[in-house]
Amino acid sequence: MWFNAFLLALREIRRNLMRSFLTVLGIVIGVAAVVTMVTLGNGATVMVSERISNLGSNLLVMRAGQRLGPSSDRAGSNAFNIQDVQALQEQIVGLKAVAPAVTRAITLVAENRNWSSTVVGTTNDYFITGNWVLADGRKFEDDELQSGRSVCVIGETVRRELFGAVNPIGDRLRVRNFDCQIIGLLSPKGQGGIGLDQDDTVLIPLTTAQRRLSGNLDVSPILMSVNDMADTEQIIDNINRLMRERRNIAENDENDFSVVDTRQIAQALSGTIQIMTALLGAVAAVSLLVGGIGIMNIMLVSVTERTREIGVRLAIGALEREVLLQFLIEAVVLSAFGGIAGIILSFGACYAVTGLMGLPFLFDPVINVMAFVFSAAIGVVFGFVPARRAAQLDPIDALRHE
Amino acid sequence: MIDALPTPTSAAREPLIQLRGVTKTYGTGVAAFEALKGIDLDIYAGEFVAIMGPSGSGKSTVMNMLGCLDSPTTGQYLFQGIHVERLTRQQRALLRRHALGFVFQGFNLLARTSAQENVELPLLYRGESAPVRRELAAKALESVGLAGWEGHTSAELSGGQQQRVAIARGIVTNPLVLLADEPTGNLDSSRSKEIMGLLTTLNQTRKITVLMVTHEAEMAAYASRVVTFVDGRVRGDEQQLVPEINAAREDH
A176-200: string of b/e by CB count within 10 Å (b at 16+)? Predict the structure, then answer.
């Protein structure tokens, strides 16, 4: 009986190919939307986590002012100085490295080429906090740091843009109004990002930057790397206490600086993306529901349209449950086909969008199987009412139906 | 085929169908309408019975009853000794499936479906395998003179041809009784004669009992017996010698 009902349903779908296609279009689009949203959302979550962990391991960033985000160096509050850095190094237990930074966007010149990049004045601790490895050359010498010599370590992007295939070690690079000698080349971190290329950077000694670029002794931000086993929360507390003391902040006043754990940013961002994904998925799921109602609608019309035919089937000996099963299977087969088509469509869409946006394409079998099962379930739920109506028709009335 | 049904006990002239005091009332109370007012009728295997009468006489109602599509309000309907009035909807469906064939005025073939598949439909519900279905359907189509037309859909067939496909569908299960409700109502006179000739042949050569509702005396003339209904009662019931059969044969 099951096989027969399946056969009859398939014949029916084949007999009304165009209508069947239009019927399942809602399911196709609904499934495609849900699967695409979730797949892209997963990809974005993974990408954000990876990119932020790429910034540095167990990285704390301390900035003057309370604003989150970049360029809050001079947001009305006092910047830090090198004594703060020394105090952090001496008094906070559990820090692997403390790197002061002075950052400026500057146009670089080498030979006859220009490139606009970010110049960071810092110390050798910066290599630890930023997880940087040298591809070639060396780090700064102590005397270079102390006396503010004109030497620099350049990132992969800067090397590519200014020197092309030539090995730049030993060459000179013009940074605004002074020349510096290239002593090292950073290994590329290698991620193509949206507006954030970590390899587009030049490192010079902190003192050099203070003397030649900023013209003062301010330092901000300060980057700190926490030991792997240390309690990050506790360390942040300690840093806050130390800095409040050093900056003479009264008991009840707000901090005029902020310490941010990049891992928290990663978690917060991933969390946000996951919520967005869930929301978009939910909206898409509503379209699935609408698709299901579409199937019910067409099936009801189809039952009315085929009333006489149902009458014939009942007259020649079809049982109620056989007619029910035929219509139910018709609905399920339709919606399941729709689900498969939607999954294929979403595969194509995900492939295209991830390629376009530089997201990783994470094929998630769970969501695909779920979407398929759900679409078939929609067929059962929304096919039941029309199927029961067909099965309960009185053959005499049905045969008389015009 | 009909193992589930009791076999006739005596080979003597035990009626295939017995109606005893059958009434049928539609609606209730003031709106009640009595379509059948106590019918007694015996039909024997191998008969070709024409049921005649003006509209509203109850001939369609009795036809639905005989076709096990409807149950009497009161009275008894015995089909091969089975009390049809006591059967459930599902049991009646099974009885139709195994013992009856139907031909309708409007042909009622499935649209956009080949003649072959239309004829196979009752076999599908009987659970026959695909090769058996194909063979029996081809034979049935051949017996109504439509060999070679298996692949044509109803839209590609004339009215007469469609009705012959419908007859093939009605007889493909080799039923005990073929019920035909105004089978020539939608056909012109020469097509009608063809169809009547076909029904007569099936009745005579394959011994299928044929019950036919018609309001045309010309068609009733092919039957071996004519039962006339007026106002919910049997008014006339006469056996016929059938000279028309010979006339129909000459027409072929």
Answer: eeeebebbbbbebbeeeeeeebbbb
